[in-house]
Structure formats: C-alpha cells, structure tokens
Design goal:
Mean pLDDT: 85
Low-confidence stretches: 1-33, 288-294, 337-347, 486-493
Largest sheet: 11 strands, mixed
Number of helices: 3
Protein name: T9SS type A sorting domain-containing protein
Keywords: Signal
Structural class: mainly beta
Radius of gyration: 29 Å
Shape: elongated
Number of strands: 43
C-alpha cells in the first residue's frame, strides 16, 4: 500500500512555534501532495473561511461539530486542542488526520470519519460505538477501527479475562484468548467479548471506546480455509465509519461465499446467534423484530456493517479478504442495528417476502426474493446459507443446500418454494407473513401448503398454526401463490400422530381420530389412561410426576397403535 506524508512545514505561519507539530511526521518531498489552502480555528473563528474539501483544517483550540457533514482536505489537531464530533456528524477528509500527542479528537457514537485517499494518519483518536441492546453476560463480536497499543482488556477492563474469544476456523468454535491483557486488536479481525461484569441485567447498549490511529486505505486479512465445511472466519469492519455490504461482497466474491453473518444474540439458546445478510436483504433472528425489524438495509439500500462491528464470512480459499475506502458510507447509526424505513434494494424489479415461525420463546425467519439476478441454483452474493442453531429454524430447501435467504428468478405465480423446518421440541407453532415488498404489495397473495393434510392457508389473512414432533422436516411445507391444486388428483394426506408434553400434560394431535391413550412408566406400570376420546386432538389432565420417561400408547380409529417415549420435565 502506498503511503503519503504531508508537507507539514508549509503551515508554519498557522502553527506558531515548532514544538506544536513535533509529533507530526517529517515532510517528504517525494509525495507531491499539497492542499490548495488552509484555515485555522482559534476558538471563536476560522482564519480563512469555513472548512471545505480543498482546505487543510487546523484546530488550535477546542471545537465541537454538532451535526451534519464537515469536509476537509486534511485535519491537524494541535497540542492542547480538544475536538469533538457529536452524534449524527460526519468528517469527510480527502487525505490525512493528524493529532498531536497532547490533543484529543473524539468521534461519538453515530458520528463517522471517512477518508477518500490512502494517506497515512498520525496520532491517536477516540472512536465511541454502542453495541446492540444486550444484558449482563451477553457477548458482542467487535472489530477495532483504529490501530495502536490498545489491548482487549484495555478496551473492556471489566470483562472477566477468561471471556475474550477468537474464532478457530479449523475447529469451528470460539476459543478463549490466552492472554487478552497483552493482545492488541488485529486490523479487520473479529473478537467475541462478553459484557463487563457491571453491565445491567436489563437490555442496555454498551458503549465501547476505541483509542488509536484511525485505519484507512486498503486493508487485507488472510482467510483460513480448512475444508468444505470448516471455513468460517471471524472478521470485522476495520474503519471508523460504516461500510457497504453490497460493495464488500462484490469486492470479495472470488474469496468468500457472498453472505455476511452478523452476531446479534442475547443469552438465549432458543434463538440463533446470527442474522444472515446478502445483497438481496436481511433475515432476522429475533421475535422482537417482527414489528420493528432492525435491518441494516433500512439504514442504507446497500446495507451496512457498522463501525466496530465484527461478523462472519465463509472462505472459498486461502486468499485475503479485501477492504478499501470505496466501501465506506456516511451513515449515522448509534448502535449496530436500527429501525425500519422503506428503502428498497438496488434492483427495482426485486420482490421479497419474509416468513416467520414462532413458538413458546422461539423464533426463526426466512427471506424469499424474486429478482432478475436470481436462479434456482446457488447465487453467490444473493443467497445466504441457513445457520442451523437455535430452538427452531425455518429455511428454504434445494437439492443440496438450505437457505436463510434465497434469490429466485423473476416471479411467476406457478412457482413452488419448499420450506424446511427444524425444531428441538415437539409442540405447537405458528407460521406467519412478517412483511413484503415489490409486487406482493399489489395484491399477490402468499399461501402456505401443509402436505400433511393438503391444507392451503392464505398467509395474507393470518397465521397458520400447526403441531409437530421434534426433528427436521423438509417435505411438509411449501410456499405457493395460487389456491388451485391443479387437475391431478391430490396426493393422499400424510398420516401423522404427534405426542408431546407441555406443563406436565401429555398432548396428542393426529390426522386420524384418537380413540384412547395409556401412559406407562419404564417398569410397565400404568400411571394414566383415557378411553372414548373420539377426537383429533387430546390433552391429558395435569400429571403429578416429574423428570421421568413415560411410554405413551395411543390407539387410533383405523386401529393403528402409536407408541412413543416422552419425557415429563
């Protein structure tokens, strides 16, 4: 990377004594870089008019940028000056940022520093950035926007030292960092860090503070590629400004699958640790986002990865991941996600729908999009692979892959989209339409087909409730766009009987009438029975037993006997 050094000596009339700029780099007469003019802040006025992109900006006294955009050719903060960029402000600098040793330059959360050229910076700045709303003992995947001597423990001194982690691609797991008090942030690397011990037990954003020389220009980080499955890498935004997800994916399409996985999790094993983002859009992982989705695409139509934010990518080889200044965006977000607005993705022919599945304390979402850039095969940059963690997972299915986000070709109402569903717990769940855009806002209905009994439910009119055993089901549900089943005779309904426990009751759902049920302990002793049920659903009375295996024997109207071992908690 080419490094440029500024001719500092050309500003001697504005600096005063030479000691005030001893901490800046010496002039390099080989660079050929000069700004056309300069203006100095003396505490009450500018010496040569307001700053702009053609002037070096020299701060010789305290200054606060309240809001809006502040342009400069280069910035110099002199000894003793304290400069603060408040929330919602942007400093856009053509060349370099230079801060004297005893000066201070601070960028509050939701303010940004964006640089155009790759000119080298000198001196330290402070970058503040808030996490998502998290509770004590939650984690955040961080990445530093500055370089210097700040260690991980300096960054979060109240985090217990055994709760700093780096990701091992070879083992596909987060490992404790052995010596976080001596570990300095690596550019563009992601570090998983638990909250400080004093963090509240109610959801609260934690404000991080990075201190060092601001990163700028081309930044590369080596990717680890273990094999076809073990190739995830924890990386991060290396700049003191958000970056465009679209630009990042396109710049790295040869070295990664075009998907970004953003860490967004509170301590809840029932929900996935990640949300999935591609150029097509964003898939949530949290029920709180149903009516207020914290979608990075709503901050900018290209999507953003915020300042300080780490994320996961999936490597295709052992080449280097690339970041550059062209990816940087002046988007002012105080935390890693923000509320919804009505931004559309780049392709105005795109039509998307988001489908949720919910149950008791669990949530999952899948995104289906129709676009000229899509196909029925894997579309790198548009399709996003599903992360199969959490209590439930809803996804679309192809012959070889499971997608949290799937781009399909231009819309046709004869399309059929197979849905996969995985759950760790038997019970009752709801599938619902979260939101939609494009042609789906113009009257095109969205139906869910349940092949268990060939039910077709209009999701535009409300949720679909179903009962299921624990397991993975990839041949039960489909998204279709017409109620017509076709001229062929419908397939015979799948015969299914589901038996599970909830609140010390045994529940049964079946496509055949339930005639009777008997419960036995593991020694064969009868502990409960009910005859003459004659219904498709049954719920026992409260069973005064806990923490044991029960054998449930159900007889159906077709004389079929269904036996299942269940656990009473």
């Amino acid at each position: 990377m080419t490094k440029f050094l500024l001719f500092v000596f050309m500003f001697l009339p504005f600096f005063g004594t030479s000691q005030e700029f001893d901490n800046f780099p010496p002039p390099d007469t080989n660079t050929g870089i000069y700004c056309n003019a300069s203006t100095t802040w003396n505490g009450s006025a500018w010496s040569n008019g307001e700053p702009d992109a053609n002037k070096d900006v020299i701060f010789n006294a305290n200054y606060t940028c309240i809001t809006g955009t502040f342009n400069a050719c280069s910035i110099f903060v002199l000894d003793g000056a304290h400069i603060n960029f408040n929330q919602g402000s942007n400093a856009i600098v053509t060349h370099s940022v230079n801060v004297a040793e005893n000066a201070q330059l601070v960028f509050e959360s939701s303010s940004n520093l964006i640089q155009i050229e790759e000119t080298e910076n000198t001196g330290n700045i402070i970058i503040k950035r808030k996490s998502s709303k998290i509770v004590k003992d939650d984690y955040t995947l961080w990445s530093s926007p500055v370089s210097g001597e700040q260690t991980l423990v300096d960054f979060s001194p109240e985090t217990l030292q055994n709760h700093f982690y780096t990701f091992s691609t070879n083992n596909n797991i987060y490992n404790n960092l052995v010596n976080p008090q001596a570990t300095v942030f690596t550019k563009a690397k992601g570090y998983l860090i638990r909250t400080p011990e004093t963090h509240p037990i109610v959801p609260t954003a934690w404000e991080a503070q990075f201190e060092g020389t601001p990163n700028t220009g081309d930044i590369n980080i080596h990717l680890v590629y273990a094999n076809q499955d073990l190739n995830y890498n924890a990386v991060g935004n290396p700049y003191p400004s958000p970056i465009s997800i679209k630009a990042f994916i396109e710049a790295n399409s040869d070295v990664i699958d075009g998907t970004v996985w953003l860490w967004r999790k509170t301590q809840d094993a029932a929900k996935s640790s990640y949300v999935t983002v591609t150029k097509l859009g964003y898939q949530s992982n949290d029920i709180v986002n149903i009516n207020n989705p914290n979608d990075p695409y709503y901050a900018h139509p290209d999507g953003i990865i915020n300042t300080g934010q780490g994320f996961m990518v999936r490597s295709k080889n052992t080449q280097e991941l690339v970041f550059n200044n062209a990816m940087r965006l002046p988007v002012n977000e105080a935390v890693f996600f923000r509320p919804k607005n009505d931004e559309q993705p780049e392709e105005n022919l795109t039509s998307r729908l988001w489908i949720n599945v919910t149950g008791t304390g669990v949530f999952s979402q899948t995104l289906i999009g129709y676009t000229p850039q899509g196909s029925l095969q894997y579309d790198n940059g548009f399709d996003g692979l599903a992360v199969m963690d959490g209590g439930v997972t809803l996804y679309t299915v192809t012959n070889t892959k499971r997608f949290a986000i799937q781009a399909r070709p231009e819309f046709n109402d004869t399309d059929v989209v197979p849905l996969g569903f995985k759950t760790q717990t038997a019970g009752t769940y709801q599938i619902a339409l979260d939101h939609m855009d494009g042609l789906f806002l113009s009257g095109q209905h969205i139906y869910l087909k349940d092949k268990t009994d060939n039910t077709i439910h209009n999701l535009n009119e409300g949720n679909y409730t179903f009962t299921t055993n624990a397991g993975t089901f990839e041949n039960r549900f489909e998204i279709v766009y017409t109620e017509t089943l076709g001229t062929n005779l419908p397939a015979a309904p799948l015969q299914e009987t589901i038996i599970y426990t909830n609140n010390n009751q045994v529940k049964v759902h079946s496509t055949q009438e339930i005639m009777s049920i008997a419960l036995y302990d593991i020694s064969g002793r009868l502990i409960y029975s009910q005859n003459n049920i004659n219904a498709f659903e049954f719920s026992s009375s409260y069973l005064n037993i806990t923490k044991q295996i029960v054998i449930a024997k159900t007889i159906l109207s077709n004389k079929q006997i269904v036996t299942k071992n269940i656990v009473i908690q």
